[in-house]
Design brief:
By secondary structure, this protein is α+β, with helices and mostly antiparallel strands. It has 2 domains: 186 residues, Gcn5-related N-acetyltransferase (GNAT) (Aminopeptidase, 3-Layer(aba) Sandwich); 227 residues, Aminopeptidase. The chain has 14 helices and 15 strands. It has a 15-stranded mixed β-sheet that branches. Helix 4 packs across helix 5. The protein is globular. The termini are far apart.
């Protein structure tokens, strides 16, 4: 059976550093009638949740995959980045030889919450810190504490009590946490217990909500960019001079398509500046592992814009994920020799139109806001790096750096050079 699901020929665009280890630690902690002299919030607190914190290898993540997948799908909006296959792929490629600090919360024996982390020894300015950091990085897109929605408060409190009981860390850090995620609840309980917390704005990820099938797929796109979207028809005509444009999509991971994507991305400006995943063997292996696993779960999609007379030479490609009726686009690539035809934006319009026709609810662009994404949407989901500091002298110094010093430096920088994610000024002129 062919892996090509669908083909269309005429688009409709519509109107730190080395890790350190103090000791092997494993503790099962039942938070029953916990009290704290610094916080009334934990006084007389009773729960059926049982939490544990242990250092494990990648095989433990694999052994939890069935329970973990069930938990991840209970979220109001399950995302691929919280699935065990995504985080396991990150651990297996970027931290293969490094033990993982795994916090789990169970309710009546059932996995109800999970927080995978890594230990690092790093500096905050000139202040060294033993850090518990989210098991994530630049290629993870986003990170969160996964827990059962109906017990959110109980489970985040239990997770915090477990973190609090683990004495080997000075700083807890989680990267690219959505503002509406679960992990900020842990920060809330930490603050109530007298710990210092901070949230550093990281990225505002654009998204486009689609109307019901049959409507204009760009109904919720910014009116100011309507003329830019209309120009796509002209780009399509320019591209047709080289051959008939054709959109293909597959839901099966295939090595030869993945290699084409790697080569296409590396051939452009990302490759020249070292930002293509083909420039980093570990990053390439991560995407190979994660996307092949996503394919086995039915979440993988690869869109390709090709010319019918050159079917083996894609002009643009979108490597994405589809889950819970939402599409996520972590990586795109295009052939810059067709730059006058704007192949990346042309593919974007075709993909958005195709997804809207299928009744998909949302397209998540991921990453940060930028000019080429604002053509489609100005709506964005804020993300933050989240921190917890122990209320010690050094902890207060680290907290002051993140909460006061660095924000002022960034404010000065943006006043001089502008905020790279602020598209409002540019759109106001359209």
């Amino acid at each position: 059976m062919s892996d090509v699901i669908r083909g269309t020929t005429t688009p409709s665009y519509g109107v730190l550093p080395s890790p350190f280890w103090l000791f092997h630690f494993h503790m099962a902690h039942t938070a029953v009638s916990k009290s704290s002299s610094t916080s009334p919030s934990t006084s007389h607190y009773t729960t059926q949740a049982t939490s544990s914190f242990e250092q494990v290898g990648c095989e433990t993540l694999t052994s939890l995959s069935e329970e973990w997948s069930k938990l991840a799908m209970q979220e109001p909006f399950p995302e691929p980045f919280f699935q065990p296959y995504w985080i396991s792929a990150f651990a297996e490629t970027f931290h293969k030889a490094t033990p993982i600090s795994l916090l789990t919360v169970r309710h009546n024996g059932e996995l109800a919450g999970i927080l995978p982390m890594k230990r690092e020894s790093r500096f905050f300015g000139k202040f060294p810190a033993n850090t518990l950091r989210s098991l994530s990085g630049i290629h993870s897109s986003r990170f969160d504490f996964m827990c059962q929605p109906k017990r959110r408060d109980e489970l985040t409190r239990a997770a915090w009590l477990q973190l609090k009981a683990e004495k080997s860390w000075d700083v807890f850090e989680a990267q690219h946490v959505p503002h509406d995620g679960r992990l900020p609840g842990i920060l809330k309980y930490a603050k109530e217990d007298g710990y210092l917390i901070a949230q550093w704005p990281s990225q505002r990820s654009p998204y486009l909500d689609f109307p019901p099938p049959g409507g204009d797929p760009f109904k919720n796109s910014p009116p100011r960019y309507k003329s830019s979207r209309n120009r796509l028809k002209g780009y399509h005509k320019k591209l047709a001079q080289f051959g008939e444009p054709h959109l293909e999509v597959t839901n099966q991971f295939q090595e030869h398509l993945f290699e084409r994507f790697i080569a296409l991305e590396k051939s452009g400006w990302k490759g020249k500046h070292g930002g293509a995943i083909g420039n980093n063997a570990t990053a390439a292996e991560f995407y190979r592992t994660a996307m092949s696993a996503a394919s086995r779960q039915g979440h993988f999609r690869m869109y390709s814009l090709v010319l019918k007379n050159k079917p083996d030479q894609p002009i643009a490609m979108d490597m994405g994920l589809l889950i819970n009726n939402r599409y996520y686009s972590p990586k795109i690539a295009y052939d810059e020799t067709y730059a006058k035809c704007s192949p990346g934006i042309l593919l974007g319009g075709m993909v958005l139109t195709d997804l809207a026709s299928q009744g998909i609810d949302r397209f998540d662009f991921l990453g940060s806001q930028s000019r080429h994404k604002s053509i489609w949407s100005l709506a964005a989901r804020p993300h933050y790096h989240c921190y917890i500091f122990r209320p010690t002298l050094l902890g207060r110094a680290r907290h002051a750096l993140i909460s006061h010093v660095l924000p002022r430096i960034r404010k000065i920088k943006y006043s001089l050079y502008g905020d790279p994610q602020d598209v409002s000024a540019r759109t106001s002129k359209k």
